[in-house]
Amino acid sequence: MELTGAQILLKSLQAEEVDTLFGYPGAVIVDVYDEMEKTGLHHVLVRHEQGAVHAADGYARASGKVGVCLVTSGPGATNTVTGLAAAYMDSIPLVILSGQVPTHLIGNDAFQEVDIVGITRPCTKHNYLVPRVEDLAGIIKEAFHIARTGRPGPVLIDLPKNVLADKALYTPPGPVQLRSYNPTYHPNSKQLKKVARLIQEARQPVILSGGGIILSRASEPLRQLARSAQIPVTSTLMGLGAFPGSDPLWLGMLGMHGTYRANMVTGACDLMIAVGVRFDDRVTGRTDTFASQAQIVHIDIDPTSIHKNVHVSTPVVGDCNISLILLNRMLRDMAPEYTPESRRQWLEQIDAWKRTNPMAYTQAEVIKPQFVIEKLYEVTQGDAVITTDVGQHQMFTAQYYPFDQPNQLITSGGLGAMGFGLPAAIGAQTALPDKRVINIAGDGSIQMNIQELSTAMQACLPIKVVILNNGFLGMVRQFQELFCEKRYAGTRLEHTPDFVKLAEAYGAVGLRAAKPEEVEPVLREGLSAPGLVIMEFMVEKEECVYPMVPAGEPVTSMLLA
Amino acid sequence: MGSQSFAIFDPDRRFYRKRPNFMTDNRCVLSILVDNQPAVLARVVGLFGGRGYNIESLCVAETIDPLVSRITLVTRGADAILEQIKKQLNKLINVIKVHTLTDAEFVDREMALVKVHAKPHSRAEILRIVDIFRCKVVDVGLDHYTIEVTGDQGKLNAITSLLKPIGIKEIARTGVIALFRDPK
């Protein structure tokens, strides 16, 4: 039977087991919306297309499935760019369906026409303009395949209006075969043997785990490797949760705002096993001094990550999960050369670093942001999915909220997109209706996508929003305090709305804590209330995130207070 | 196109500099097989532009298989950058295969059309040069010759430097095309 492009699109989405779409309608995709009503696909109507992409991103991270967005042409499509770039940097599998003007109008500067394939080329894993309705089903299948395999990433499909209206026979496409795309999942066993030998010989090893561990679901073999060989673990922001924050081998996050001991360990280790990382500059600081005493093993599925920022001695291209399982098997078959005794000195040294420079702050009359995060951990007992925006609150969350499970922290790491947290929480809560989803935000970044409160209300999502209000764009203010002699140019936030009243205006519950003793009661009340709640905490205005490694410095030279 | 600044890996200090160094940078001829589809060239060129890599010359045309095009691209960079360039190219979904011709024996050719001022006193001299370099005159006018030159870059540079004093009106160069030499 002949079907229209819109019908083929929805059939193809169902074949990919898509059950939820985040979107915003418009003139050229109205046919798809019309068909969608008939299929019963769950559609979350956002208030801005950037919110749709971040929500699909949060959905993908929370569910492990591909997040899907549906937007219209022109401004609808351009509004997705920030979300695409964020998902691309953090390797999140998304498929964005954007409407396009009819093929005969492309290139004529038609109403709401934009070359979105051209615009998004550098911030998608791949993208398509569907030329004919006959190509539609095959392209959708290919797009999902590319999005979720190898190093995952966002894929955009541009759908001209006439392609959606034209009719064609629908036959489900066969398996995807791309001669030019074959990700390497199985690592080279010789290289892996070398790694096993290095681990046996190492006296002061460390594991650096990254977002790749979470994406490939390698949390179990990572835990096994660390515990069986007694190797301490540090992690990038993207990798938090893969190794339990409550484990004695846990060092905390490393890098610009990493813990003292994690950064000292990178300077002193003789073997660094880096798995699923890409050595971002926020992690390495000055690269020529990074892990300069160490042999670096780098396991990653993306060959371009290897030798890109840091030259490594033993590269392994492969899936993190498969690689670690095979590595654990090799280590088990080898007689262990290390003994708990030989590791003792190293672990004691790390303990000493922890004792001399622990993560600390002093709570006085004004609420400290760190105090709010610690209390939140206490009240939730660590059982919550946390999304964050970008800035000081994000770093305080990474430092003071220990994550025990992968995908428990959902944050924009690579791109650092403010306005990510609230829509990501919408996506996460949609994927996990029974979980407690909390968005930790600042007074600056919450305002970047605050319109999505309306989305959450309409979709009846009981998200809890924690706003740390310091009246500043705190992270930049911190830079200005340290490096611009406290000239706070453009970082004072005045005329910020009353968030309690704003919550009420949206039909949500608003709570505020202005004194330290109010923090816990507000958290308890807010978290136990049904529905959407905004909790605002009036925190210390000029608090800084410490430790801090100034940009371009070695990670071992930290400002501690 | 032309030369841009690009990152260079310093093996002694294990980090990248964003400055070309013509002492340590190597010239590299890449032969890139790609899907013959719209905008694939844009993906390749966008990659070089976006990541600050250098393109010295670029040539694209369909191969014997109409579904495949060959891009011959000449670039310059330190070894670590060249390695990144190849990996990044391979990461593009539409790139089928990347060969580094400069890693082995290869033949390369470039063609140029050179339009030179031909005044009565210089016409004979121009034809002599054409003869020595085994070129062809493909267009003649009252005051110009258009010469077709084919050869490697050295030959093209040599003939242009000889014709320059006589007066080059215009020049069009194709950029390098190249293939591996196969075992005899």
List the helices and strands and how they pair.
The complex is a heterodimer of chains A (561) and B (184).
Chain A: E1 2-4, H1 5-15, E2 20-23, H2 30-39, E3 42-45, H3 49-63, E4 67-71, H4 75-78, H5 81-89, E5 94-100, H6 116-120, E6 126-129, H7 136-148, E7 154-160, H8 161-165, E8 167-169, H9 189-201, E9 205-209, H10 211-215, H11 219-228, E10 233-235, E11 250-253, H12 260-268, E12 271-275, H13 281-284, E13 295-300, E14 314-317, H14 320-333, H15 340-356, H16 369-380, E15 385-388, H17 392-400, E16 409-410, H18 421-431, E17 437-442, H19 452-458, E18 464-469, H20 474-483, H21 499-505, E19 509-513, H22 516-528, E20 533-538
Parallel strand pairs in A: 2-3, 2-4, 4-5, 5-7, 6-7, 9-10, 9-12, 10-11, 12-13, 13-14, 15-16, 15-17, 17-18, 18-20, 19-20
Antiparallel strand pairs in A: 1-8
Helix pairs in contact in A: 1-2, 1-7, 3-5, 3-18, 9-14, 11-14, 12-15, 16-17, 16-22
Chain B: E1 8-10, E2 15-17, E3 26-35, H1 40-50, E4 57-62, E5 68-77, H2 79-91, E6 95-100, E7 106-117, H3 123-132, E8 136-140, E9 144-151, H4 153-163, E10 168-173, E11 177-180
Antiparallel strand pairs in B: 1-2, 3-5, 3-6, 4-5, 7-9, 7-10, 7-11, 8-9
The percentage of residues in β strands of chain B lies in 35-45%
Can you tell me the CATH topology of the largest domain in chain B?
Answer: Alpha-Beta Plaits
Q: Specify the number of helices of chain B.
A: 4
The whole-number mean of residue pLDDT values of chain A reads 96
Report on this model:
The complex is a heterodimer of chains A (561) and B (184). With 561 residues, chain A is of the alpha/beta class. Chain A folds into three domains: 2-169, Thiamin diphosphate (ThDP)-binding fold, Pyr/PP domains (Rossmann fold, 3-Layer(aba) Sandwich); 189-356, TPP-binding domain (Rossmann fold, 3-Layer(aba) Sandwich); 369-538, Rossmann fold. In chain A, the strands form four sheets. A six-stranded parallel sheet of chain A has the order 3-2-4-5-7-6, with helices on both faces. Chain A has a six-stranded parallel sheet with strand order 11-10-9-12-13-14, with helices on both faces. In chain A, helix 1 crosses helix 2 and helix 3 runs parallel beside helix 5. The model of chain A has no long low-confidence stretch (mean pLDDT 96). Chain B has 184 residues and is α+β, with helices and mostly antiparallel strands. Chain B folds into two domains: 8-103, Alpha-Beta Plaits (2-Layer Sandwich), CATH 3.30.70; 108-180, ACT-like. Chain A, domain 2 (Alpha-Beta Plaits). Chain B contains four helices and eleven strands, in the order βββαββαββαββαββ. In chain B, a hairpin with a 3-residue loop joins strand 8 and strand 9 (144-151). The radius of gyration of chain B is 19 Å and the shape is elongated. Mean pLDDT of chain B is 88; it is low at 1-18. Chain A binds chain B through residues 117-118, 121-122, 125-126, 129, 146, 178-181, 286-288, 290, 292, 302-304, 306-311, and chain B through 9-11, 13-16, 35, 38-39, 42-43, 46-47, 50, 80, 83-84, 87-88, 90-91, 93-97.
